[in-house]
Amino acid sequence: MADLRLEIADRVATITLDRPAALNALTVALKEELLRTFTALADDPAVRSVVLTGAGRAFCAGQDLRERLQPDAAPLDVELRERYNPLILAMRRLEKPIVGAINGIAAGAGASLALACDVRVAAEGGSIVLAFGRIGLIPDSGATWLLPRFVGASKAAEMALTGASLTAVDAERLGLVAQVVSADLLLAEAQAIAGRLADLAPRAVALTKRALEASWTASLEQQLELEAELQGIAGATADHAEGIAAFLEKRPPRFTGE
Ligand code: T3D
Fold first, then answer.
1. Strand locations in the chain, DSSP E?
2. pLDDT at residue 28 greater than cutoff 90
3. Helix (H, G, I), strand (E, B) or coil at 205
């Protein structure tokens, strides 16, 4: 698709939102292609991790507001249920880690996309802004769930209610982004992180992601039980045996996903 690029190299898939003239704003076609891409990557054994970034000077400016004015645009609740929500769930449920390379502003649903990644690295000029209130909307696409959990209720309320922009540097200070790097190094750094994730045991990575996700709504007792269940699965993999063998033989492990 013209507005989305997908490159796969060394077990890392790089998805680039590619509408730079509109700051990679999300059209119906782009959202549907993004969902198709994540769905396909879930089943692609050649891919172990994903990088999501934007072309040009923005990560993503959220919903394409010109498209929204079209007479045939779906009502907002329908658009969320049919397109945004499945996309966010696909990202959070993908059994492969997603590294967000926040190359510029991430606004509105673009901020939500950034939040739905597992790890974020940002360019020095990058920023995250819940721009929804400026156009009379509420933060959506998971922002009201993810942001308070990442930065705390107070900061999330400030960002959601005032629409204040969070710079990359402040986002790093809050732990929302793992690292801030210069723009020219961003993609390479994000791909290096994704590469390191791709070297890990895929089942353990997938189960870790599942455990972390479940922790948001679980009691300690429930989470302890889930850890026991998932560790039982991880412990039965050939990769676990390989990890121990590699440790004892003082060599890097070669994980196969078995
Ligand atoms: O379906 C639904 O609607 C429900 C879901 C809603 C989720 C949402 O995402 S709601 C929030 C939508 N997004 C926004 O409100 C952000 C709109 N954009 C901006 O506020 C600003 O563009 C930015 C703060 C992101 C950047 O400002 P600036 O000054 O650096 O750039 P600019 O000049 O405003 O934008 C550059 C071009 O991109 C410009 O096009 P032009 O005039 O050169 O032809 C601008 O119109 C276009 N653009 C930017 N954002 C969008 C957009 N075009 C369409 N939709 C956009 N969201």
1. 4-9, 12-17, 49-54, 58-60, 98-102, 105-107, 119-123, 127-129, 165-167, 179-181
2. yes
3. helix
Ligand 1 pocket, mutate which of 27, 65, 132 (most atoms under 8 A from CB): 65
Alpha-carbon gap, residue 256 to 258, rounded angstroms:
5
Nearest CA-CA partner of 23 in 51, 54, 67: 54
**pLDDT > 70: what percent of the chain?**
100
Structure tokens at 102: 């926040």
Question: What is the arrangement of strands in the sheet containing 119-123, beginning at the earlier edge strand?
Answer: 4-9, 12-17, 49-54, 98-102, 119-123, 179-181
Q: Provide the 3-class DSSP secondary structure of residue 182.
A: coil
Residue 146: CB atoms within 10 Å: 22
pLDDT given for residue 1 in this prediction: 74
pLDDT for 34 beyond 80: yes
Name the residue among 148, 168, 145 with its Cα closest to residue 158: 148
Over residues 48-105, the pLDDT tens digits come to: 999 999 999 999 999 999 999 999 999 999 999 999 999 999 999 999 999 999 999 9
Ligand 1: which residue has its CA nearest to atom 56?
64
* pLDDT score at 2: 87
